[in-house]
């Protein structure tokens, strides 16, 4: 457990050094890292202020015209829009723990404007989406109108947690011109505090500690991913069942199980300590009968195949 956090901290520290180097006469200047718990309060206040003062084009979604693109558009509640329903009355919330400091809990706000009629992704799946990333001032920092596939373990936590609330399309039709039509897709948005976003590790163009908005359409879902190809599906490498793969590290070598091909570090590859049947089902032998399957048991380094 401890070494997992060391691993994560190492990534953040590397980012800290890179992102805080300023080329000036006085040499590199460090941006002090903020307290993660205190920052939750500040970030949540900023996001709630946005949700109270803004609305989305919900009327377009309620009565879609034939050519409506199902894109979420935000605007300020003011002037001729003074009577619009604020987002704060339409959002849903979920509790999400901080991936660096798990005792810190966020209330994550998200919007489900079109639920989707197909499969819903899990945190270890891949999702085919179009998306747009915006700051709270509604400037866009990133977008893809072409469907793009994301490994949901590799995106910022807030985006992952928003996308998994939707379902994908039920039917994908290939048109004569080569484009795809997705029937029954999902559409939503998530309002991401920096601690579930980029924190200090922000790509260029995104200021550190920015709160972000992602809008997205979910088209398709790829399940049963085995990131390290060791025969154990990634979902089953979430040993503590907290729906986060980064903090399960049986041999405490800094590589979490879902990316570790020898999970118990006994020198025998995981794939040689499990049985993959011809029909694809997997068995996890416990040869010593101590309740720990061989691939997680460093005291049982016996080849099974
Ligand atoms: Ca695996
Ligand atoms: Ca490991
Ligand atoms: Ca593994
Ligand atoms: Ca092993």
UniProtKB/TrEMBL annotation:
SUPFAM superfamilies the UniProt entry points to: FKBP-like
PROSITE patterns annotated for this entry? Answer: FKBP_PPIASE, PROKAR_LIPOPROTEIN
Q: According to the UniProt record, where is the region Disordered?
A: 240-267, 279-305
Name this protein carries in UniProt: peptidylprolyl isomerase
Q: What does it catalyze?
A: [protein]-peptidylproline (omega=180) = [protein]-peptidylproline (omega=0)
Q: E.C. number, please?
A: 5.2.1.8
Q: What is the lineage of its organism?
A: Bacteria, Pseudomonadati, Bacteroidota, Flavobacteriia, Flavobacteriales
GO MF, any single term: peptidyl-prolyl cis-trans isomerase activity
Q: Give UniProt keywords alphabetically.
A: Isomerase, Rotamase
Outline the extent of the PPIase FKBP-type domain.
124-222
Keyword rRNA-binding: yes or no?
A: no
């Amino acid at each position: 457990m401890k070494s997992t956090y060391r691993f994560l901290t190492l990534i953040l520290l590397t980012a800290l050094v890179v992102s805080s180097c300023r080329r000036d006469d006085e040499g590199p200047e460090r941006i002090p890292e903020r307290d993660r718990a205190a920052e939750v309060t500040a970030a949540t206040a900023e996001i709630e202020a946005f949700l109270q003062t803004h609305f989305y084009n919900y009327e377009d979604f309620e009565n879609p015209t034939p050519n409506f693109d199902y894109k979420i558009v935000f605007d300020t509640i003011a002037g001729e829009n003074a009577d619009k329903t604020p987002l704060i009355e339409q959002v849903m919330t979920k509790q999400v723990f901080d991936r660096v400091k798990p005792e810190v809990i966020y209330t994550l706000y998200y919007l489900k404007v079109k639920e989707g009629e197909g499969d819903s992704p899990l945190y270890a799946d891949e999702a085919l989406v179009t998306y747009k990333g915006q700051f709270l001032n509604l400037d866009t920092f990133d977008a893809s109108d072409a469907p793009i596939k994301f490994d949901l373990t590799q995106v910022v936590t807030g985006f992952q947690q928003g996308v998994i609330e939707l379902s994908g399309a039920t039917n994908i039709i290939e048109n004569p011109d080569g484009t795809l039509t997705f029937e029954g897709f999902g559409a939503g948005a998530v309002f991401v505090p920096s601690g579930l976003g980029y924190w200090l590790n922000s790509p260029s163009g995104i200021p550190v500690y920015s709160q972000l908005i992602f809008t997205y359409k979910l088209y398709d879902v790829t399940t049963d991913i085995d990131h390290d190809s060791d025969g154990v599906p990634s979902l089953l490498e979430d040993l503590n069942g907290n729906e986060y793969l980064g903090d399960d590290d049986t041999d405490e070598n800094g590589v979490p199980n879902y990316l570790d091909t020898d999970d118990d570090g006994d020198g025998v590859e995981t794939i040689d300590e499990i049985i993959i049947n011809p029909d694809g089902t997997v068995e996890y032998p416990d040869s010593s009968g101590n309740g720990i399957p061989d691939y997680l048991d460093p005291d049982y380094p016996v080849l099974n195949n």
